[in-house]
Amino acid sequence: MMKLTVVSTIMRVVLGILFLAHGISKFQMGMDGVAGWFQSVGIPGFLAYVVSPIELVGGILLIIGLFTRYVSILLIIVLLGAVFTVKLSAGLMGNGQMAGYELDLSFMLVALYLAVTNNTGFSLDQMLFRRKTA
After folding, report:
1. What DSSP string describes 66-79?
2. Which of 65, 68, 85, 88 is deepest in the core (most CB within 10 A)?
3. In 3D, which of 28, 90, 26, 29 has the Cα closest to residue 55?
4. Which ranges does the record mark as transmembrane (predicted)?
């Protein structure tokens, strides 16, 4: 059980770091620039103002392990949106001009695991919301 807790913690923290990095990148690019890029690939620009904070705040929440299940579900939705609106046409491994969706699938699987498991590892979720057994 301890090994599973350690692995779950590593998966959660690494996924959090990756989404935090993506969120920071979008904010550094400037939200108007991100919205413009979204529009250029056929996604409504206002979604940049939704997706970027989800990635940034969601990454932080995953790192500390707070609301892991809900954050993971939100991130799966974001990833599905990216795959079906942008990356699917590039194929699994990409097409030389754009990345494919192989990493998105990997991220979705980690997020799905975190969304359905009761073991979020060493986390605030476990400290604050763990049910006490008699």
Report:
1. SSHHHHHHHHHHHH
2. 68
3. 26
4. 47-67, 74-93, 105-124
Q: Using one digit for the tens of pLDDT, what is the confidence trace for 37-62?
A: 999 988 999 999 999 999 999 999 99
- Contact indicator for 44, 36 with CB cutoff of 8 Å: no
- Given a cut of 80, whether residue 36 has pLDDT beyond it is yes
Question: Where are the domains positioned within the chain?
Answer: 2-118
Helix (H, G, I), strand (E, B), or coil: what is residue 16? helix
DSSP assignment, residue 120?
Answer: -
CA gap 82, 101 in Å, rounded: 8
Q: What is the per-residue DSSP string for 83-112?
A: IIIIIGGG-SS--SSS--SHHHHHHHHHHH
